User: What shape does this take?
Amino acid sequence: MFQHINPYIPKMSVEDLHRLIDDENLSIKVVKQRITKHGDFRKSNNQKCIITINKCNNKYRFLMTLIHEIAHYYTYKENKFAKPHGIKWKTMFKNISKPFLNNSIFPENLLNSLQEHMKNPKSSFSYDSKVSKELDKYDDENDDLVYLDELPINSVFKYRGKRFIKIEKKRKRYLCECVSDKRNYLFVSHARVLNK
Assistant: This one.
């Protein structure tokens, strides 16, 4: 039923993943890359649950995003009013991730980062700098990109076609100014940018 996702996930995860989803009232769609999210879960008008996952060549990112969204599905199935990334979801995400978090599926450094992340999972891997950087190692991204935290203050960089100036660090994010409109934006430290 879900054979179409097999090419996107590590081979050693296929059996456990199908055990998790095969008999569920669930549709999983692989969609083109979206800028604002890696995946999502929603209930359709006909009461079927739908998960969409961005198509990508990074099998580890795809798998963990899919498990993240499956945790939303199971949390919804158990309690329709649970908070999207609340305690019930975190517990579900931790529990259904356990069979996958092993070195037959993940490389050691990524596995260690994921295990640390799963102690208190965030609403997105994008908010966990260590996990994001480890996952990025398996992307087919442009090698000219650097992490924002590697650039000195007052550096000019390009992000999604616009030029910015790195101003200062504010807790875990960097305050940056857009050169064209002079507006300020907050960037995560591991944002991948073009050093210009």
Notes: Helices lie at 14-21, 59-78, 87-97, 108-117, 129-136. Residues 3-136 form one domain. The longest strand covers residues 162-170.
